[in-house]
Amino acid sequence: MRAFTEGQGTECIDEYTTTDVDPGRIEERCTRVYGVPDYLDDTHKWPRIEAFVHATARRETNGRSRRSERVYLLSSCLSARDSAAAIRGHWQIENSLHWSLDVVMNDDQHHARKDNAPINSAALRRIALNIVKANTDKGSNRVKLKRTGWNDNFLRSHMRKF
């Protein structure tokens, strides 16, 4: 991050800070939006880059502190508050999908490693999960997935929707 800002004349356009406090956990997040320094435009020639965001988070849980830092490139200049919301929204979706895949399909236990097998099997698991989630019957997604494997009529009822 220092390479983007220090000695480059890069100015912070906007800053937004939040603090979440739960029992046993404190999390502080700071989001800063910067204009694009000329050297980045000249060196990398990224199309339509309007700004970049520096997001830092410090989480303290049970007396232990952890800090993370990320940089995002923006194709439109957002406020720091809007950038923070977009970043949080992205990670909520990502974490929700990963959690669903892991709980419903034991995604972390799949060990396909050769050629395109990891990408293909991950794509098939996501497709299957989306099909199962689209079913409005009662029951968990894991139970629906099992029923789909056990009952051809139930499988066909899923497939008709797509």
Notes on the protein architecture:
The chain is α+β, with helices and mostly antiparallel strands and 162 residues long. The protein has two domains: 1-96, no CATH class; 110-162, no CATH class. It contains six helices and four strands. A four-stranded antiparallel β-sheet has the order 1-2-3-4, with helices on one face. A hairpin with a 2-residue loop joins strand 3 and strand 4. The protein is elongated and about 65 Å long. The N and C termini lie far apart (45 Å). The mean pLDDT is 83.
Name its key features.
162 residues; alpha+beta; four-stranded antiparallel sheet; 6 helices; 4 strands; 27% strand; elongated
Overview in brief:
The chain is of the alpha+beta class. The chain has two domains: 1-96, no CATH class; 110-162, no CATH class.
What's the Cα radius of gyration? 22 Å
Total domains, how many?
A: 2
Order of helices and strands: HEEHEEHHHH
Percentage of helical residues?
40-55%
Order of strands in the sheet with the most strands?
A: 1-2-3-4
Percent range for β-strand residues? 25-35%
The separation of the N and C termini measures 45 Å
Overall number of strands: 4
| Number of helical segments with 4 or more residues | 6
What does the overall shape look like?
A: elongated
**Spans where pLDDT lies below 50 across 5 or more residues:** none
Q: What number is the mean pLDDT?
A: 83
Determine the structural class based on helices, strands and strand pairing: alpha+beta
Could you give a short account of the major beta sheet? 4 strands, antiparallel
